[in-house]
Amino acid sequence: MKVGMLTGGGDCPGLNAVIRAVVRKGIFHYKDEFVGFLEGWRGLIENQSIPLDLAAVAGILPRGGTILRTSRTNPSKRPDGLDKCINSFKANNLDALIAIGGDDTLSVAQKLHEKGLKVIGVPKTIDNDLAGTDFTFGFDTAVNIATEAIDRVHTTAEAHNRVMVVEVMGRDAGWIALYSGVAGGADVILIPESPFDIDNVAETIKTRHGRGRYFSIVVVAEGAKFSADVDPQHGAPVLADLGKDEFGHARLGGVGNSLAREIERRTGFETRTVVLGHIQRGGSPSAFDRVLATRYGLGAIDMVHHGDFGCMAAIRGNKITSVPLADAIAKNRTVDQEMIKVASGILEQSSPAE
Length: 354
Ligand code: F6P
Known about the structure:
With about 350 residues, the chain is α/β, with parallel strands linked by helices. It folds into two domains: about 1-140 and about 285-330, Rossmann fold; about 140-280, Phosphofructokinase domain (Rossmann fold). It contains twelve helices and 13 strands. The strands form three sheets. A seven-stranded mixed beta sheet has the order 3-2-1-4-5-12-13, sandwiched between helices. Helix 6 crosses helix 7 (about 175-185) and helix 8 packs across helix 9. The longest helix is centred in the middle third of the chain and has 22 residues, at about 140-160. The radius of gyration is 22 Å and the shape is elongated. The structure holds 6-O-phosphono-beta-D-fructofuranose. 6-O-phosphono-beta-D-fructofuranose binds near residues 10, 169, 170, 222 and 281.
């Protein structure tokens, strides 16, 4: 078979491991041929591709980023974008297309599937918020990076008697904040799922310092919102600027700084902010993510040969399986009650459940 592949949306550690696994199994076991479209859907719209053979994927397993590069191009927003994708598919004599991406990329894959294109999805996002699968690759790496940062921030917070606010990624779901906050021993964890009361946060910190602790660590997801009643931001996420991407998403960022300012104002404790940003997405994938991404890649190429089109490779209870793309993009997967319970058990107050 001749199979096309692309990576879309924000990059994520493990993308190259997926590409490598697809190509190796496809060539070794199915005698497939591959082309890689460059920069997400833009490559398919403009028919920009490179051959993907064994040499092209040699040595890429530990590399961050994606050898196919990526973009947030939305074919539905370009003139005849979806039809141009279909034309490129035909012009390259493809039998199938594997789209590796998050909910935006996979929503385009679903539209193309509805137009009859033989497409398969692989879930990707450090945010871990895609429905239909237990974990996305890249999440573990991001959590490890955030946890190491929190550990480092801990010692300087302690040395200076400060409150340190660590802003991590997580647009709609607080998975990274919750996991890294628990792993790093944060005192307050704030997630997009539950708008927080800034007075409660300040009280929690004062109570802790009243017990003789003289520093605190607050982990906040970029999408966390001040609750509407005591609210410098009027209950909306804090935006980095007013621009939006082609899928209509605003650029988040700044909640950490707003939070630090309000904490300092209410408690009188010196407070600083660290924004981890894209450091969480860059660099080499963890061993866990390399294995998970490899399993996703193997699952995807098997799905091509089983004719499992319109579906996404997924992991459920440590088994690779297949779920309809429509289910995966229907909603965001927010943090589960199990993890909320873990955090709530450890934290003094201002638990993510509040
Ligand atoms: O979707 C993953 C993500 O890392 C979000 O957490 C974040 O809001 C967004 O990507 C940032 O995207 P960009 O790299 O386009 O600024």
